[in-house]
Automatic annotation (TrEMBL):
It comes from the Eukaryota. This is Uncharacterized protein.
Amino acid sequence: MESFLSTADLFRASPLVFWCWVSIELSVPSEFPPSLFSLRRLSWTSSTVGDHKAALPVTEVESFQLEIADAEEREAHLKAKLDHVDGILRSARLADYLYVRTRWTELPGEPPIIDDTEVDDWLPQFVVFSDSCILYYQKSTDLSPQDSILLSDVVEVGLLPSFERGDQEILHGFFILTSRGSKSECASLSKVQVDSWLTTLQLMGCHVGSTSDPDELTE
């Protein structure tokens, strides 16, 4: 179907073309017939090739659909992580990032354990203390813990000697000894944070070992 542009339509469509036309109109000598330089109505044709309507390729539409589905899946996954962290913070007694490493105590009948105290294998983990267990996550947004300790398996807790690490950072630590022989050592730059963990473990009925200072825990 064909439609026509009036002078006003021409100005709205392209002011530059309109003013060029005006300049031509004003510069035309009076002896020339007006119809010779008059602007004919411009045609604006909208047509399709054959009877086919313009459309996006099927592959492009499918690509958009896949992107939308992926975005929705990522959104759902992130929401699940957010809900998980929110649930942890609401229900946990304590939840902190601590430096953690595991050592094993010598059990009866086993050969002596090599002294690896000086080995620097501390890794940051998100440690959560709930009512019945201690959970170790690699990150706070992880949905499943890497390790856990039942509170009923804890036989002793206590302070670790402070030590220097890295760029002259002083770390304060505590340990959690279990009936299985595992010794979870946790450390932090904050002594207040360490004391808070030990105090809470003590209040939950965990036995404080002789290596810790009970007076420090009750300050």
